[in-house]
Prior knowledge:
This protein has helices at 6-9, 31-39, 46-49, 54-60, 63-72, 375-378, and strands at 17-18, 21-22, 80-85, 95-98, 103-106, 116-120, 123-127, 130-134, 137-140, 150-151, 155-159, 164-168, 179-183, 188-192, 211-215, 220-224, 235-239, 245-251, 254-260, 264-269, 273-279, 282-288, 303-307, 316-321, 324-329, 334-340, 352-356, 359-366, 385-392, 397-403, 417-422. By secondary structure, it is mainly beta. The chain has 2 domains: 30-73, no CATH class; 75-422, Neuraminidase. A hairpin with a 2-residue loop joins β1 and β2 (21-22). The longest helix is centred in the first third of the chain and has 10 residues, at 63-72. The radius of gyration is 23 Å and the shape is globular.
Amino acid sequence: MRPQSPSSSFTSVAEFDSGNLTLTLIPGLPDDLAALILAFLPYSYHGRLKSICKSWKYFFSSRILHSIRRKHLPFCKRSHLLCIFPHDPSVSSPYLFDPRNLAWCYLPPMPCNPHVYGLCNFTSVSHDSHLYVLGGSLFDTRSFPLDRPSPSSSAFRYDFVTHTWDSLPPMLSPRGSFACAAIPNSGRILVAGGGSRHTMFGAAGSRMSSVEMYDIGRNEWMALDGLPRFRAGCVGFMVGNGDEEKEFWVMGGYGESRTILGVFPVDEIYRDAVVMKLKNGGVGKWRELGDMWEEGERSRLGRIAIVEDINGGSPGIFMLDKNEIFRYDMTSNRWWKETSVPKRAADESSVGFVALDDELHVMALHNAADSTENRRSRRLKRPASLFLQIYHPEKKIWRTLITKPPFQQSLDFKTAVMCTIRL
Length: 423
C-alpha cells in the first residue's frame, strides 16, 4: 500500500508531541503509514489498545483516527456494532458489541438528573459518529402522584470522537415508545407518535400523533404534519438512500384502548403502516397503507430489523414473530415467511432481533446449567451466555455464535433498547 502524505492523514505531528518529545506510533515506520495501519484495526479493540503505550493512547483518543477511517475505509467495511442499553442509561452503562470479533466495550453512563429515575421506552438512533438517546418514560420525584410515569422530552448525544455525552435541546413534545429514524446523508432525525407508557405497566399511558424533525446542523427541533391518528409503540425506518427521494415508514403500534367487562384495559392494535415522502429536502403528506395481515393471523407486529441496501435500493424489511422470520413485500403489502429459527428460545418474548453486516441476528440469553449440579450450587447463578443465531437472507444459511456479555445486571430483551452504528 502506498504511504499517504502527512497532510492527508494528520493535521499536525504535534498531535503526538508531549513534553517536547515526539512520540512514535510504530518504531521504524513513518507516523502517517503507522496511523493508517492502526486505523484499520476493529473499533471494538481501540479501548484496550490505548494501554499499550502513550503514543497509542493519544492516537486512539484523537479525532484523526476517525477522519482516517472515514476517508480510507468504505462505509460497508467499517465496524458494524450493536449498542445495547440494558437499563436506564443514566444509571447503567450502555455496551458496544462487535459480533464479527466477539468483542465488548462499555460506554460511560448518560448524564444523570437527580429528580428522575426509571427511564425506559426511549429510542436510540445513530448518525455519523454520534449516538442519540431521545425521550422515554420515567418517574419524576417532583410530580404527583409519585407512582405515575410521565413521558420525557430530553435528548442526549454521545460523541465517539470525544467520548463524551452532550445535552441537546428537548423535543417539542415529550414522548416514549415512538418511531424514530435518521435520514441518510441529510443531518436530520425524525420522530413520530409515542406516549407515556412505562415498562412497569402493561397498559394505560397516553398516546399521541405529533411528528418532529431534529436538524443536527441547526441544533433545533421543528414540528411536522402529525400522523393520521394516535399511535404509540410503533417502529420507524427509512426507505431509499438517494438524494432526491426518500420515505419515512411508521409501522404497527397501538392506539386507543378499550376495556373488557369494563375493568381490563386492552389496546387497539394497528395492523397497518403510514408513509411520509421526503423529496429534495422537503417533507410531504402522510400516505396510509392497508392492513399488513388478516384478522387472527397474528396478535401484533413482531420485532423489526432492516437490512440496508448500500446501492440506494429498497431495504430488506424483516419481522421476528415468535420462532419465525417474515419478509415484508411492499408490492402486496403482506408479510411472507422467510425461514424459521433453528433453535427455539426458552422465552420467546425476550429475544433480540437486529440486522448487522447484512445478516439477521436473533439473540437470547442461555444459561448452560449442568444437570448434575445440586440445588445448592444452582443458587450461585453463573453469568448467562448470549446465544446468537445468525441468518444471511441472500445465502439462505444459518450460523451460530456464543459470547459472554459483561453485564453486571440481568439483560431482558423485552425492555432493553438497541441500535446499530458503523464506526
